[in-house]
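[Structure tokenization] protein backbone as discrete codes

[Encoding] learned vocabulary of local backbone shapes

[Begin record] amino acids and matching fold tokens:

___
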Amino acid sequence: MRVLVVEDEKNMNRLISEAMEDEGYSVDSCFDGREAIDYAEAAEYDVIILDVNLPGCDGFTVVERLRERNCSAPVIFLTARDSVMDKVTGLNAGGDYYLTKPFSFDELRAVVNVMTRKYTGNRTNEYAVGDLVVDTASRTVTRGGEAIDLTSKEFALLEYMIRNRGVVLSREMIENNLWNFEYEGGTNVVDVYIGYLRRKIDKGRDKKLIHTVWGTGWVLREE
């Protein structure tokens, strides 16, 4: 999953970004409202974590402009402005959740999980294909009841594939969702991680779940 963190206080921006990276998310960050609009138009984000008091333009305006431009990414406002009127304004502007500072990082992680469940149509944190089960909250993976250990990036790739089970994912789609703007691409890193997953998910099993669609990409499905 790819997350955009928009917070002008640099230390707070770093802490939030690190918390999301620890969860295995690919994170971009910026410090200005106008810059946030540029980022959101240049990439598809699963969640946008957005301060309200920003230079350039405030968070409410950022969301209004993104919604006008058909950006449907869920937005979590993260701000010290805690009046009822501010909350109403933010939600009416197109925000999905309003979290006031000071906040708990555990709560922020839980809200991010809720937002991603909501927008993928899953009512729980568990996703399944055949006997493969991925729990995005506990970050556990099992196949046939057997636990499978994955690195953070391997889990992020599997999570992206199982949230889009049955959909053929191109190399570009995977790069855009698992790596931030600092990643330059042009290497076989996606192929390498697909190989890692295959060895852990499919090796030694009669029924393969990760399939190559030649000339297009990969798909996670039961055949």
